[in-house]
What we know:
Elements: H1 2-13, E1 19-24, H2 28-34, E2 40-49, E3 53-56, H3 60-67, E4 72-82, E5 87-96
Antiparallel strand pairs: 1-4, 2-3, 2-5, 4-5
Amino acid sequence: MRALFLLVIVSFLNGCLYTGVTVPLTPEEQMKASGVVATKQGTACSWSILGLVYIGDSSYGKALREGRISKVASVDKRTEGAPLFLTGRQCTVVTGN
Length: 97
């Protein structure tokens, strides 16, 4: 019974201590069709503190400027954080030339 209770608690808390997910915003087929080979990468991030304050700039435009990219190969959105503590970071990652 104790093992079952512990299993239920662990399953419920799965992902509460730390989460790190990267999601493509540009489909893979579209990237291949563009013919752009990624040689540069630009990242723009924003942070969440206690789920109350959000600071930073995770915009597509800032990621382009940070990487000095003129031709885009891919765009991804990365989310990392500790949901239990209501903190995290969200980044836009752009690759290209």
